Amino acid sequence: SEMTKIVEISGEGGPLGIHVVPFISSLSGRMLGLLIRGIEENSRSRRDGLFHENEGIVKINRVDLTDKTFAQAQDIFRQAMKFQNVVLEVLPPYNRDQYEKSVIAPLFLDNEEGVPKTKIPPPVHPKPTLKTIKLSGTMGLEAGVQAALQQAKSPNLPRLCRKPSSPSLSPLLGFGNKRNAKKIKIDLKKGPEGLGFTVVTRDSSVHGPGPIFVKNILPKGAAVKDGRLQSGDRILEVNGLDITGRTQEELVAMLRSTKQGETVSLLVARQEDAFLPREL
């Protein structure tokens, strides 16, 4: 790949002296590999200039680490280090955004013809501060990430660190107008893979918490099986309760309180005619 570089090392040279954490996509919440958080002084990696901090290891001996768990990725790395030659595919920090977009793009397609699944407009330039919470049944918590999720006491709902300048999200900020919006009621039955979508909102202002939108439909979960919920839908009600003025953490707690096998009733607003389909 033009976005990554190849690093060849020997498994017989002793410990590498690097500290890794899960490399999680800020766009989709998917596990992409291992992120190098620290390099020990006087280590083999530092001495030979093998790695730099914030680089991502995405393939080990041609094994793609995408969607592997942190434990699986670590085990693949440990097993590879038993061999004399180890080939790593490493992603430099300056290519991270481009790489994440290339990985997430297939999630938006319905079929082989490449019909866009969601109607997301072209990128625009505003750079507000956004916060994202994943509503799936799978773990994706990067080491060192704390904050509001501890208040919700939820191991299933990690708070993902994201950069403020995300082209895929900035158009949603213009969708606060309820005029011409079609209201749709969607019932989702919570299965073993969770509800299967992520939400996004602006930070609270003097006017109170901002509107909450569906950010992404994940490849597994109740939302993709049902097929009606779309990225960009504004969530108005949960189980008949108006969420206007409620924080993102409160919404997450409401959804999380739904037990497996129970149904969540969502009322969403959709402005289908406001945007053209995004070309991917």
Main attributes?
Pdz3 Domain, elongated, 6 helices, alpha+beta, six-stranded antiparallel beta sheet
CATH class of the domain at 5-104: Mainly Beta
SSE arrangement, N to C: EEEHEEHEHEHEEEEHEEHE
CATH superfamily of the domain at 5-104: PDZ domain
Named at the architecture level, the CATH assignment of the domain at 5-104 is Roll
The radius of gyration is: 20 Å
Biggest sheet: strands, sense, closure? 6 strands, antiparallel
Question: Could you estimate the helical fraction of the residues in percent?
Answer: 10-25%
Return the CATH topology of the domain at 5-104. Pdz3 Domain
Topology (SSEs and partners):
Elements (H helix, E strand, L loop, with lengths): L4 E6 L7 E7 L6 E9 L4 H5 L7 E5 L2 E2 L5 H11 L4 E7 L4 H9 L25 E6 L12 H5 L6 E2 L21 E8 L7 E6 L9 E6 L4 H5 L7 E5 L2 E2 L5 H9 L6 E8 L10
Antiparallel strand pairs: 1-6, 2-3, 3-4, 4-5, 4-6, 7-8, 7-10, 9-14, 10-11, 12-13, 12-14
Provide structural commentary.
The protein is of the alpha+beta class and 280 residues long. Helix content is 16%, strand content 28%. It has 6 helices and 14 strands. The protein has helices at residues 44-48, 70-80, 96-104, 148-152, 222-226, 248-256, and strands at 5-10, 18-24, 31-39, 56-60, 63-64, 85-91, 130-135, 159-160, 182-189, 197-202, 212-217, 234-238, 241-242, 263-270. The radius of gyration is 20 Å and the shape is elongated. This is Partitioning defective 3 B. One of its GO terms (molecular function) is phosphatidylinositol binding.
